[in-house]
Design brief:
globular; 8 helices; mainly alpha
Length: 216
């Protein structure tokens, strides 16, 4: 078993890379898409799904590659991760997510400190976040029960798909939601939308824990 320090560093660094990919690819997409929002979203989607598969392959053997407070909470609820460790994971994930956003800003020579003005609110958006998180956790639980080696690819493909079939473009991650509020770029979310998104994500997570236990 890797030391706690190595596990926390893996969660921090992995989440930082995830956010650098999400925000950085969004900035690049907006620069190159010529105002075509659908093309920009596609250009944002592919790197996100791809980096998830890579990061889970790299860090999965060390920390489990959660990169997501909803995932860590779900495993704590299932009795598979001590609550104390889950709390430290969540802290590392949020810190890493913020650093990843700042790294993206620096790479594209944008102001490091900023807040998004992109409004993402309404019942459809909140339902989308609950559905997106529910599906993400079921993907993880289902693969873990039968084909653990498929988790990196299944998660990457699920998020790639969920970017397009959910109204919210599938944040499905409280750390991602918090960090994206600190970026007034293509991937941003206004700070006022963060709390409802996180509530919806936790509802989806709780439902997945219940259904996952019943199915597997």
């Amino acid at each position: 078993m890797p030391s706690l320090a190595r596990r926390l560093f893996s969660e921090w660094l992995g989440t930082a890379f995830l956010l650098a990919a999400v925000v950085g690819s969004g900035i690049m997409a907006q620069k190159l898409a010529g105002g075509n929002v659908a093309l920009a979203l596609l250009c944002n989607t592919i790197p996100t799904g791809a980096i998830l598969a890579v990061l889970i392959l790299i860090f999965g053997p060390l920390s489990g590659a959660h990169f997501n407070p909803a995932v860590s909470l779900a495993f704590a609820l299932r009795g598979e991760l001590p609550w104390r460790i889950a709390a430290t994971y969540i802290g590392a994930q949020i810190a890493g997510a913020v650093v990843g956003v700042w790294a993206a800003h620096l790479m594209f020579e944008l102001p490091v400190w900023q807040f998004s003005i992109t409004s993402r609110a309404g019942s459809g958006q909140w339902l989308a976040e609950a559905v997106a998180t529910f599906g993400l956790l079921l993907t993880i639980f289902g693969c873990a029960a039968r084909t653990p080696a498929a988790i990196p690819y299944a998660v990457g493909l699920y998020i790639t798909s969920a970017y397009w079939f959910t109204a919210s473009t599938s944040f499905a991650n409280p750390a991602v939601t918090i960090a994206r509020s600190l970026s007034d770029t293509f991937a941003g979310i206004a700070p006022s939308g963060v709390a409802p998104f996180i509530v919806a994500q936790l509802v989806g997570m709780a439902a997945a824990v219940i259904v996952g236990k019943w199915l597997w």
